[in-house]
Amino acid sequence: MSLPHHTDPSLAEHFKKEEWLKDLFDHAHDLIQIVHPDGTILYVNNAWSNLLGYREEEIIGKSLYSFIEETNKNAYIAYRNAILQNRETENNIIFSLIGKQGQRITVEGSVSVKQTPEGVPLYTRGIFRDITLKLKNESQLKSFHEELKEREQNLQRLLTYAPDAVVVIDKDSRIIFWNPKAETIFGWTAAEVMHQPLSGTIVPPQYREAHDMGMKRYLATGDAHVMDKTIEITALNKKGEEFYISLTISKTVQKGEVVFIAFIRDIRAQKANQLELERKTKELERSNDNLEEFAHAASHDLKEPIRKVQTFASRLKESLAPKMTATEKGYFERMEIAAKRMGLLVDDLLEYSHVSQGEDGLETIDLSQSLRTVLEDLEVAIEEKGAVVTIGELPQIKGHKRQIQQLFQNLLSNGLKYTRPEVVPQIHISGGLVRGEETGLSLTTEEGNRSFHFIKVQDNGIGFEQKDADRIFKMFQRLHGKAEYSGTGVGLSIVRKVVENHKGYITAESQPNEGARFTIFLPAEIV
User: Fold this and answer.
1) Of 1, 83, 481, 523, which has the fewest beta carbons less than 10 angstroms from its beta carbon?
2) What is the pTM of this model?
3) Which CATH number fits domain 358-527: 3.20.20.70, 3.30.565.10, 3.40.309.10, 3.40.50.720?
4) Exposed (0-12), middle (13-18) or buried (19+): which is 41, by Cβ within 10 Å?
5) Which secondary structure element, helix H or strand E, spans residue 463, and what is its range?
6) Which tens digits make up the pLDDT trace of 291-310?
7) Domain 9-130 has CATH 3.30.450.20
């Protein structure tokens, strides 16, 4: 988010911390604005600038009030001041903005205030929806109702070609009009539903009693709970599928009899987007929690031992320098290089833990080359264990190179650590391509039709109980004591984090003393 130069440091720091929200805001359909208490615009999303026709530099740093239609300005200022002062006010406000070409755009929404812990306002947040067309349609609809008695034939034509489904029922709740859009949405032709009860067609079973009771109550008392209101509810189509619709019901008179007109819009896609947004929000919250845990581990449990290794190695090298052979000096040099590389790796991971990774930075990765680099780092451990590492065919993928190397580093280190006594450790790495529906994972239909790269890492170590397959990936979770096997309990949680960052999946299969197999599935195309 770009801020005006006069923004105070605490506010700038706050925005820096919330930078990850920008992409979410910029792709929202609603108008989103962030405004300094004095009315200076700090940020608007793409929907805001596009709707009004201004470039970003024509908006940021300007007074919000200069974009508000003159007759609405005082009411908006009073509303916003009440929000800033924590006074009770209406939840929503309707006002008009003026576009660059002079067009009048009416919006509806609300404003909230962000405060410091001391209660000092930092900025206000506004989220609005363009209701210009909605108001225009409502105005037209009201006009149509007033003219219905005299111009029923013209209204019939208008309803027939309406962009939404239009269903008209009589006081007995029987269908007397069913436009072409209703045929498209629900699957029944007008001939199939004409004069049929509405409850027997599009009303789901759980709502039928309430629908019938509501009709009786209205006809008896004139009391209507949903009349002239837009609600979201589910409906049935001809196939028996239940899906979300937006429904508005109005009353009118046709040939002297009361009838009810339902305007219906299919909002399945909108609901799916809403659910996906909620899922992504929860995923992001969970991700942030994991990153905080990892940052703590990296800064306290990893960096300090590295510093000690480097310090004491340096002291020992200086003390023993006159007595060392060339081979021994070479050992010290390799130890120093390894410690330095480890320090850099921890710094990289610590930095990564504070950064929300996106598609920026993705590159084509030769997994075979990445694995060779990791094997060089683990050369000493492999030699000490006498391990045999074999590599099958591995694909090229799109991803974050450093993270993929860390994934291999931790999986191979895991295989080298948890070995059985007097058994030569063997680790085999292989890969290939598979369709989502063939992975055995619980995937959506869309994911089931995608292709996934798979990477298998198989060892012949001590294994574990299958019931612990999920536990081993959790931060600081260990199945064995430190006296038996060293480690911090971070390695496999890092592996799973890397897989999640690449929008993939990981499974673990094992039995005690039968080794372990880790299988990673990464989308062939990052989406």
Assistant:
1) 481
2) 0.39
3) 3.30.565.10
4) buried
5) none
6) 666 665 656 566 767 777 88
7) yes
